[in-house]
Structure prediction request, 697 residues.
Amino acid sequence: MTRALTIATGLLLAAVLGMGAYLYILRRNEQAGARNLPDTRPISAPVAGPPSRVTFYLAYDDPGVVRAQEASIALPADPAQRGREILHALVGEYVKRPSAHELPGGADVKDVFLVTGDTAVVDTTPAFAEGHRSGVFVETLTVASLVKTLTANLPGVTRVKILVDGKERETLAGHADLECFYDVVTVEQLLEQLR
Amino acid sequence: MPWSELERMFLVSGFSLLDRSGDRGLLPRNEKRETRKRGGASAAIVAVLLLLLLVSAPSAEEKQLSIYGPQMSYSLPVSEHNKQEYIALLAALEPFGNVSAGVDGEKWKLSFNNLEAEFRRDSNRGKVAGRRFGLPAPFVLEGNRGLVPLRALPGILGLMLATKTEYHEAARRLFLGGAATHFTTDVREGGLSVNFSAPVNPLISTEPGRLKMTFTRDPVVSSAYILRLENPLVSAITFSENNGRAELVVQGRVPLLAQFAAGGKTIDLVPAPSQAQSAPPAAAPGTATAAVSVPPPPTLQSLAAKPPFVVMLDAGHGGDDRGALLSETLAEKAVTLALARRLRSELQSYGLSAVMSRDADVTVPVEQRAAMADAARVTVYVSLHAASLGRGVRVYTAMINSASAKPGGFVPWDAAQAGYVLSSRALADIVKAELGKHEIPSSKLSAPVKPLNNVAAAAIAIEIAPSGADVGSVNAAGYQQRIATAVAEAIVVGRARVEAER
Ligand SMILES: [Zn+2]
Prediction:
């Protein structure tokens, strides 16, 4: 009995040690992988590539429409970075004075992430929401302009979620839902009604 | 234990209806159907039988008025003539003393104690207790029965009985001589107590996740509200009144049992014993021990008479949430409340019931507004906003991809609106048309307005913009009144369309 017990204990001990070693290796590999991660990201600001054709969907408070407008701007190759640059340029139009659809100074798009093939997440600056004019219509124009511009220029993206300073927010400025994912089909239906 | 005690005890089983987010993890409907096929035919037969039973039974939703006096309460049927609600004056006065009435040609004369009232067929003018009295609609004479417009009754009773009257028009509840029973709720870990200022005797009914107390004879009053609770037993309490009744609905997280205490002045809600358990639960000293009655199957409740037509008016913002600052001195929250009140009295003038998400400058979270609409089972939900941008009125419906909202498809909580989107759009079209008739420019759009997506009813949002260059016009009485009239007319016109979709 003692002999059998000793063998069993020995085997178990060996298994424990083996598992421990395996875990250690796994962890080390993981850490090494994590250390390698920054290497895959650009160290400097994205280098602008050759000019590309972009369609902006610009909101006009008067008479309350969103109009398509083509432009040619230099864009990076990475789709998410392209998205960020396009929305940065779009919001730039609204921050200018005078603007057909004024957004507050400091409003900007910080980042665009492509979460899955069809879904993009747009992270905006605090000023984008904090200083936004309050109203169903004025907030809807902003959302529709952003969503339609992004989806029109990033093939395959059909759903957009808008964050403020990295966090989900209930509404843009008291009215427009920011907890939902915007489906480009519903935004297009809205743009159709605005015509 | 006396039978009356037994009858007063009920059980709520199942779980909160509000917890719809839990649906997300369920199997798709087709898979569930596979397992239910066998029971389908017999269930259908039972459902048809139940429907027949309910159809042959007298409708529970006939319009009624409840009158609450200091000594007694009673309910009377309300009839309609030329789209106005009428009530038999003699029947309304009968419980208070000797009353008689007679016809003299076109005149109808009523004597009550030492006082008289006199009206003439099809005339708006009459006399009550020696004073001239105008009616909001013509007097109706049906044989010997004299009918007065319901809206005139509080004034007539006030004069004939020389008493103070308070009329809750939307709910058709008339309080005489200050009759009122107030209540407070006391929420504890182990349960909930509702304490009334006078003994009450509500009808208690149950359905999965809900226990409903219906007060027809008791003058229970409170402003309409919903109270959300973190309590482990109770998730929400709602108070509402409608068609001569008040309702207190408790949403339970666990099956609950109602027990009367303190001579009918207290109703305790405690967790019900599990149905497998044979022993009664431990009861506090002095309270009755529990008896368990099995609740009716959910189908009974869902097939019950068509719910009343109720409109919820949701005045946007309020309290800490100012909404848009329309001018230096004008906050959106004040404009929306003023408009909601006008719209309420317009709807009431058509005999429609309206509930308000707020009737004061108080903070009401957005998601609570949708929960209120759903808990009150309103038929139409109207969210009200005001803005300085543009002109006229913008009418919004939820931004829902109607192509993806297939009938029978899987609908999560945040798309409660999906099943109603067609009636919402139809209502928005009618509102736009009625605004046009009143020469108010308007547009109809879909928009991501919170909380339209979460409302399980025909739901629209209305954003009023100035009538001209002056932003202050959004708060002008005349402009608001025209809008309120047009929107109320649209709801009256659209009622059949909306009810057909329910
Ligand atoms: Zn608003």
In short: The first helix of chain A runs from residue 2 to 40.
